[in-house]
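Quick note —
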Amino acid sequence: MTDIRIEQLRVPDTLDGEGAADFLRAVDVSRQVRVSTWGNDDLAYTGEELLALCHDPYEWYVMLVARVDGTIVGRAGIAMPLDDQTELAHVTLDVLPVAEGRGLGRRLLEAAETFVRGENRRVVVVETNHSAPELRAQLESATDVELLHPATGVGALPLANRQARFAHNAGYRLERVEQFSSCALPFPESRAAALLESAAAAHGDEYAVHQWTDTCPDEWAADVARLEQEGGAPAGEGSWDVARLREAEELSQSTGRRTLVTAAESRTTGRLVGYTSISVLGHRDDVVFQDDTVMEGGHRGRELGLRMKLANLELLRRAFPHSHAIYTWNAAEDTHLITINARMGFAAAGVTGQWRKSFDPEM
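Predicted structure written out below.
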């Protein structure tokens, strides 16, 4: 008789301390799931990264695991903000492909929901990941495909998709669809030169470019906080100021993560009008992530975003020459940034679905 158990995993203090073997097994479960989805482990946490996440002072992170005959074959990561959005919990589910079909995902999700409700969290958000080849095959294999459309934005997921059907049947509503893209590195010099020429023709010398790594210079900190408040911070994350910017920088650096920033100053006003950032993980620098690109409304449409992105990639090339790929997510309706990324050579790798379930009828 098969013994199936769902239990909370004790997070070790170090990766060679008590409980580390089970923790690292759960990390490897997540890695194998991402290899199955994307064909590589570029998006998988290392043990060091997940351990740092578990000790984040601004977020309580709990891990549940599914054991089959004592072996960990699935996990649910539960992230609960401690500052803003304290009614919310983010749940990440991973079940090994060889263990699917036993109801482990459902049992893990139900256990996670029970846990977060016990902590007075009233909203659960889960994420599903779908590779472009998988979705293409599902859409082309049937003549009458039932699509799920998000509550906000554009895009859709086929109900026939296993992950989408799982979330839908569990009572989750599709909130948003994000496009996931990747670009091989190093960035070709000939492509960069052609794009920079196009950007220069669009806005001339109206802007000065400034760059930094990890910590924003004091002279620009207020401008960056303002831009983050106006267009970078997700809704519900509270107000941004210089103090919060410094806290975010310190937290990022405490995990070993490096942040490369390129900002644009209007020569007319002397203020920053936009910035873009790239994150480099603390324990592997071969994979990097395009983060926020924020711009004041009056300066859009002049290829300034393109210029900042290209300058930041050049900074990345000098600082981290071993990076082989850069990844980015964009809301499906953000056609402006998606178009810029396509011009730069980013290829669609798939989409991510953001799903939401409320335990309060009015929410």
